[in-house]
Amino acid sequence: MITKEHFFLLPLRHDHSNGGQLEVFVRELVLSKNKDRADLPSLVFLQGGPGFQAGRPVTAESGWMKRALEEYRVFLLDQRGTGRSSPITHETLTMMKDPGEQAEYVSLMRADNIVKDCEEIRKLGQSFGGFCVLSYLSLAPQGLKEAIITGGLAPADPIFSPAAGRDGLAVYRATYDRVAARSEKFYLKYPQHVATVRQIVELLDKEPQRLPGGGVLTARRFLQLGLCLGSGSGFEHMHYLLEDPWLRSSDPSAGGKSFLKAVEDEMSYETNPLYAIAHETIYCSGVGASKWSAQRIMQERKDFDYKEKLRDPKGKIYFTAEHIFDWMYDDYLHLQGLKPVAALLASKQHWTKLYDKERLNACQVPTAAAVYYDDMYVERRLSEQTAQEIGCLPGAVPIKTWITNEYQHSAIRDDGYRVLDVLLGMLRGSKQIPS
């Protein structure tokens, strides 16, 4: 495999309204035998997140990369604000003059501008990358030959817009239902951890622990570990984490450094702050603020009240998952200085439009999407509603959806070769899905 690195100096604002530029990094991959093929088509991978750089390839011998390189020149894009593309960090944000400037800058890191950065390039989009693909189909379909989405068929209505006539909290109501179900399944597989989690939560509720890198491990922060339960190996990962010998001691001073370090390393909010501060903005389009939506739903859900569960000797404490809370800007050391910008983004009413319903209805771009039946991060029922809107008009090209319970959201990592092979087969007619 041959690797090349490319840097592009692009406008910060593609409407050129206020100048400014940023650097965008793309890594090009091609098999040695194909390096001189000028006719080799391009595939651009749009990473999930938001706020994460593209993966760093070590080998081309497995997964979706192996399948893609058989017939494509692959480009791994570090989306603006991530990785080597003018990365947003705690340090770079705090160098700006005030929270208003920070909020304006972060608001330019969304799917519409990511699409404009890579216009006219073919792509495959995972998770949030799939949200970007929908924006691409809305804003610049002429740049696409085909599109593939894995676990990222987003709700295409502007769900945080009162004019949409929809409940802007539907996404988070659904994800809380999903993580409650995953918590129950985890406890069914590892019933001993009902007591383990209760022990940890009770200890941390009484005495939060200082983490090795700073910040504090509170009970509420510990429960965010549920983020891992939506992957194919998430249950086992959580099980091994909860095996730490320190957890068998009732004395928090007896050690526990390995456990605290492991918990600290689980979360990427401090190294990739866009994942926190821009997360709810991916659902904002047109007019309407997110207003800490996940937190507001949490307050409605008594089954997620760990204090209430502790009062019940048999209470199973549910984890949280891909939910952002204002208290994170207190518990996470390197988010503390970003609380004002997070608050501004949560209250921001006016956003660029991410999707064009008329263009999606009239879609002419062959598109295939994998939708995971029990997906904990992207609600399957909302994905199905979106699929009904893509190519639904006479003469348009309807999207082909593969709805499967064989995989969790992490399928592109867990069995990438097969997932991509099925989706490519759907586009070309060799895989009769849907039948």
From TrEMBL:
Family statement drawn from the similarity comment of this UniProt entry: Belongs to the peptidase S33 family.
Keywords from the UniProt entry: Hydrolase
Protein's organism: Guillardia theta (strain CCMP2712)
Top-level taxonomic group: Eukaryota
Protein name, UniProt field: AB hydrolase-1 domain-containing protein
InterPro entries, per database record: AB_hydrolase_1, AB_hydrolase_fold, Peptidase_S33, Serine_prot/Carboxylest_S33
UniProt key word Acetylation: no
Pfam family, one: Abhydrolase_1
One of the GO BP terms on file: proteolysis
GO terms for MF: peptidase activity
Domain AB hydrolase-1, first and last residues per copy: 41-182
